[in-house]
Write a structure and sequence with these properties.
By secondary structure, the chain is of the alpha/beta class. The chain has two domains: about 200 residues, 2-enoyl-CoA Hydratase, Chain A, domain 1; about 45 residues. About 45% of the residues lie in helices and about 15% in strands. The strands form two sheets. Strands 1-2-3-5-7-10 form a six-stranded mixed sheet, sandwiched between helices. α5 crosses α6. It is globular and about 60 Å long. The chain binds coenzyme A. Coenzyme A binds next to α2 and β6.
Length: about 260
């Protein structure tokens, strides 16, 4: 599928989705959110895709937020629908992807941009990245999961301060806080993501999908994460990947997973 605001590139099982509105610092307008939703659906259905990277085009921004110009004149119902539709279409969709999704944070990740990065399964940042939830400076609050996911990732106190001050933190601080897993010089960002993705791709796709569901269950209100782990663990024993993984271990060879 061709997209107006995204670039898609594939190399050896790794799909890189680049949000491509650099003159608007890759701000998420409704069209881009819809396109990301379609791109994720497409990637999930494509067996050749094993890991995804989401990044922003240019050297300056990952995503500088939801498109302020688009929602500046919204009413209360429109504001509510913006948050609800966005969460369902994009942010929850990213989090629930059955394939690992890495955010390559290449610059500003603000508001909806940080919320998108936080929906990904983990984050790698370039040294020039700046992260924040500046919504209260606009008279609004984070509406794409930011109040929940930031507190889960860095703890309630740090999340409260970051949301209340509307301030930005640098990549190194984000690393200390556990908001990102690695910080590298900008020219090395995609290579670092590629390296981590390559390590992931050696593993069973069915087990990776089960691990994502089990970890996510611990953060779903009302879900019993330990129980989900038991169920997912048990289901693995019926998969071809499990047979292959355990046989390969005993035969002292590398496993060749087919994702079944
Ligand atoms: N929505 C819509 N447009 C945005 C945007 C956003 N979230 N963030 C940046 N842009 C646009 C700017 O309006 C500008 O477009 P223009 O040239 O047509 O006026 C272009 O991107 C470049 O941004 P600019 O502000 O000129 O760059 P800068 O280097 O001076 O500042 C930022 C960079 C990121 C500090 C600044 O753009 C900013 O504060 N953006 C908004 C961040 C925000 O509040 N996000 C949360 C939204 S809920």
């Amino acid at each position: 599928m061709a997209f107006n605001n995204l670039l898609i590139a594939d190399t050896d099982g790794l799909r890189t989705i680049t949000i491509n509105r650099p003159d608007q610092l890759n701000a998420l307008n409704r069209e881009t959110i819809g396109e990301l939703d379609s791109a994720l659906t497409e990637a999930d259905a494509d067996k050749s895709v094993r890991v995804l990277i989401i990044t922003g085009s240019g050297m300056k921004a990952f995503v500088a937020g939801a498109d302020i110009k688009e929602f500046a004149h919204f009413s209360i119902p429109e504001g509510k629908a913006l948050s609800a539709d966005g969460q369902k279409k994009l942010f929850d969709h990213v989090e629930r992807m059955s394939k690992p999704v890495i955010a390559a944070v290449n610059g500003f990740a603000l508001g909806g941009g940080l919320e998108l990065a936080m929906s990904c399964h983990f984050r790698v940042a370039s040294d020039n990245a700046r992260m924040g939830l500046p919504e209260v400076s606009l008279g609004v609050i984070p509406g794409y999961g930011g109040t929940q996911r930031l507190a889960r990732l860095v703890g309630k106190g740090k999340a409260m301060e970051m949301i209340m001050t509307a301030g930005m933190i640098k990549a190194e601080e984000a690393l200390q806080w556990g908001l990102v897993n690695h910080v590298v010089p900008q020219p090395e960002l995609l290579a670092k993501c590629n390296e981590v993705a390559t390590a992931i791709m050696k593993n069973s796709p069915t087990a990776l999908a089960a691990a994502i569901r089990a970890v996510n269950a611990g953060y779903e209100p009302g879900a019993d994460g330990m129980q989900r782990e038991i169920e997912e663990f048990g289901k693995c024993f019926g998969t071809a990947d499990f047979k292959e993984g355990t046989s390969a271990f005993m035969e002292k060879r590398k496993a060749e997973f087919k994702g079944e």
